[in-house]
Design a protein that fits this description.
Blueprint: H1 3-12, H2 17-40, H3 44-57, H4 74-105, E1 114-118, E2 122-128, H5 129-132, H6 142-157, E3 161-167, H7 181-200, E4 207-211, H8 224-230, E5 232-238
């Protein structure tokens, strides 16, 4: 056997070419899994410091901070920061609207007859029923129209939807028009909404009229004064 034939036989005994490619692929996969394991064993102490730093930078309140447990969820930090930012902006919008309402109504002699309150929904304007209605009636009084007209510029510029709520005390009412307080409270809320739509030229889609009858009293219906407080109309500006 000459030298050339021996060399060819030795070459044939070597590994096929595909084995080299396969070996390279397995090496890459091994490296990839080692990286995954290293990330899964992240130093919790270091991550806690990073997490606290991020939450502090985003002004996340203590009550809303995300606790670091066995499983880390960085997305929760961002979500908490965004929620806090949105809450702050919503609070600013509520304060601005409440201030505007107070300014608009400051010149009217309505002390003790209405309240402007920031609520979970937004801003509520609560008006005693006798300011706008005669006893057991649902037509807005002439004297109340000047009060409602003062609100129109604010409502026309407001981007918010409004819920008008009618509330009564627990004294039953029975008449041909209003067999119960449900009909009375709903009709009163509807009268206020109709005034805003007809006189203020506001779109009906911005309003909802709701009657609660005596189901949501502010105080116990145990004295004439308390019953008077429970008879009211609320105009709620819903601030998202």
């Amino acid at each position: 056997m000459n030298e050339e034939e021996g060399r060819k036989k030795r070459e044939k005994k070597g590994a096929p070419g595909w084995v080299v490619t396969y070996g390279d692929m397995m090496s890459l996969l091994l490296t990839f899994f080692i990286m995954l394991v290293s990330y899964s064993n992240m130093d919790i102490a270091k991550y806690k410091r990073l997490l606290n730093s991020l939450q502090g930078a985003f002004n996340v309140s203590e009550s809303k901070r995300v606790a670091v447990k066995e499983e880390i969820n960085p997305e929760a930090v961002i979500a908490a920061a965004q929620a806090t930012t949105n809450e702050d902006r919503r609070s600013e919008r509520k304060k601005a609207l409440a201030s505007l309402l107070k300014e608009s109504l400051s010149k009217m002699n309505l002390a003790g007859k209405l309240d402007i309150v920031e609520t979970d929904q937004g801003v509520m304007l609560a008006v005693q029923d006798y300011v706008m209605f005669d006893s057991a009636k649902t037509l807005v009084k002439e004297g109340a129209k000047s009060f409602l007209s003062t609100l129109l510029p604010v409502l026309q510029k407001s981007p918010y939807e409004m819920i008008v709520e009618g509330h009564t005390d627990d004294t039953p009412i029975q008449s041909n028009s209003y067999p119960s307080n449900w009909e009375l409270s709903t009709a009163r809320a509807g009268s206020v909404v109709r005034y805003f739509i007809e006189e203020g030229k506001l779109p009906a889609s911005k309003f909802m009229a709701v009657g609660f009858a005596e189901t949501r009293p502010l105080v116990p219906n145990d004295t004439p004064e308390n019953r008077s407080k429970n008879r009211r109309v609320n105009i709620v500006f819903v601030i998202p």
